[in-house]
Amino acid sequence: MKLPLLEDIIDAVREAGELVIKGAAAKAVRQKGDSDYVTDSDLAVQHFLKEKLTSAYPEIGFLAEEEGEGDACTDGLCWVLDPIDGTMNFIRDLSLSAVSLALVRDGETLMSAVYNPFSGEMFCAEQGRGAYLNGEPIRVSEQKTLDGGLAAFGTSPYKKPYTAKYFELYRELFLAAADVRRLGSAALDICYVAAGRFDCYFEYTLSIWDYAAARLILTEAGGKITDPRGEAIGGAKKSGVLATNVHLHKTVLDIIKKYD
Predict the structure, then answer these.
(1) Average pLDDT rounded to a whole number, residues 27-50
(2) Weakest mean pLDDT among 21-25, 87-91, 110-114
(3) Burial call 84-100: b when 16+ CB within 10 Å, e when fewer
(4) Rounded to two decimals, what is the model's pTM?
(5) pLDDT tens, 119-149?
(6) Angstrom distance (rounded) from CA 123 to CA 195
(7) Measuring CA to CA, which residue among 123, 115, 121, 118 is closest to residue 93?
(8) Where, residue-wise, is CATH 3.40.190.80 in the chain?
């Protein structure tokens, strides 16, 4: 079958972003689990993109965060969507949220877009064709040591029983680096590594819709992404994620392994 064009994915995601902006003024929020929330806007974006994509490409599967849409994408072609990555940020008007959409085949991302409608930043990539931010090519940083680097991490808020171990690791990253950041959107965190804004990013537990789009943007920008043991992530539905500029990958892995 003929694959979609990256431009079509970008257009669909940008259109979905308009729903995010429209929904920002009035948010109906419900709790799915511990520190896990969904809004009407999450559902509106998901329903819009599912209808648009499955209508245009009925032979492509669909996996998304809300309402248990689909199964893990391990075989064949599949859309992987996080309608609003950074829902808590969205709820609290922090303007650090993104629509994250990837086209995945056999666990490998072929093309993707991550769009923050509040900033207007559109990160995108197609396998073998580089990574872009609003049409301009991006590259990871050349930072070769954590000393002087900017490290980002996610706190895995759904896994609070592991807080003591996690924060010991984050403390070591903070002491080793110039400073640390925690944005609250894994997709944006990874894209920021791709754009050279951060030098590395780590989180213990993410779902495939959190990282499927951003991982291609990172690797096409010259970066590296693995699980916490340094293994390829593939089509795993859940995984820890380490994203770096390549130079720092072993350094951060060695720190992570102390807390495994």
Answers:
(1) 75
(2) 21-25
(3) bbbbbbbbeeeebbbbb
(4) 0.93
(5) 999 999 999 999 999 999 999 999 999 999 9
(6) 9
(7) 118
(8) 150-257
Which residue is it, tokens 């002087």?
148
Residue type, 213: A
**Residue spans in the chain of domains classed CATH 3.30.540.10:** 6-137
Sign of the torsion formed by the C-alpha atoms of 12, 13, 19 and 21: negative
Q: Report the helix count and the strand count for the chain, using DSSP H and E.
A: 7, 14
Q: What is the Cα–Cα distance from 97 to 114, expressed in whole angstroms?
A: 10
Architecture of domain 6-137 in this structure = 2-Layer Sandwich (3.30)
Task: Kindly report the CATH number that applies to the domain delimited by 150-257.
Answer: 3.40.190.80
| Integer angstrom CA distances of residue 150 from 74, 157, 199, 234 | 33, 22, 6, 27
Are 126 and 119 contacting, i.e. CB atoms less than 8 angstroms apart?
no
214, 191 contact by CB (below 8 A): yes
